[in-house]
């Protein structure tokens, strides 16, 4: 029954045309749709899911919400009046390019899921639970950080069509500066908060997740860089080969190191394997675009982010020594962010200048 309930998501993905609205930069339609569907889903979960016996209800709510979310986009397509004559459509002309983009998704899924499978296969069920919770927390955060790619990909593709190289480099530099600024801050934030956050969020039984989360959080930095180089540069410029090579290299390394690391270190070993894989993917991509993309002064900016993050970390530790519970988490997030950006303002970081220009506009 659970399998059939989850199968609804297959139909939901067939009907998913969010890519169309991303391509024509109609993000407001997606945002409004997601907001209301998520609110309804949360209300239904709190109303209909009361015990372990309501697991089927929980799965159906999640699956049907995805289906409804995608179905609601179709009325907008009719308003756009895009398809005049179905006979002129030639969908299979894009098949080769689609497969080239599909391949890295397979390998990426392989090395992100493989560690969980291996932990379970080796009988380390508790370790798999520890790793899974840390991994989900980090990747959920990365989804927020990578949202910029969704916005910038059609913009860069448009500049590529116009052959405006200068604008492409400018946009990519701004994206890289922003991505590094946020990922470094979030990593240090997790590093400082994990000891307090995990017992509150998961309970005392999940104390081993504290260390694993600190290791896992570091992958946000290479993943953010790869997101800029891969999703925002290689994909719009149709350089799928370079993207595939980097991800395949990461998958191979993950397979080679996961088994011995998991065998000796359990969930900690799995987290180190993921860290090595993600770092390699980013390193290969940077090596491949070294002659095409130049970001002068970027190391100076990174140094500023690290200094600001270290000051923020000291403040977080200090606050946790004074305040307990969820209040300490809330105060740490607000005060930490305030201190981080204040230090960047004092250091005259480029990201602050970008933000001030955006506010003026």
Characteristic key phrases:
single chain, 361 residues, mainly alpha, 16 helices, 82% helix, globular
Kindly describe this structure.
This protein is mainly alpha-helical and 361 residues long. The chain contains 16 helices and no strands. It has helices at residues 2-14, 18-23, 27-48, 55-71, 74-80, 95-121, 125-145, 147-161, 165-201, 209-217, 220-234, 240-265, 267-288, 298-322, 325-346, 350-360. α7 packs parallel to α13, α8 (147-161) runs parallel beside α11 (220-234) and α9 (165-201) runs antiparallel to α10. The longest helix is centred in the middle third of the chain and has 37 residues, at 165-201. The protein starts with a helix and ends with a helix. The relative contact order is 0.09.
Put the structure in a nutshell.
With 361 residues, this protein is mainly α.
**Helix tally?**
16
Q: How much strand?
A: under 5%
Characterize the largest beta sheet: strand count, sense, and whether it forms a barrel: none
Distance between the termini: 53 Å
What is the radius of gyration computed over CA atoms, rounded to a whole number of angstroms? 22 Å
Helicity range? over 70%
SSE topology string = HHHHHHHHHHHHHHHH
- How much is the average pLDDT? 84
Overall shape: it is globular
Q: pLDDT below 50 for ≥5 consecutive residues: which ranges?
A: none
* DSSP summary, beta strand count: 0
Category by helix and strand content: mainly alpha
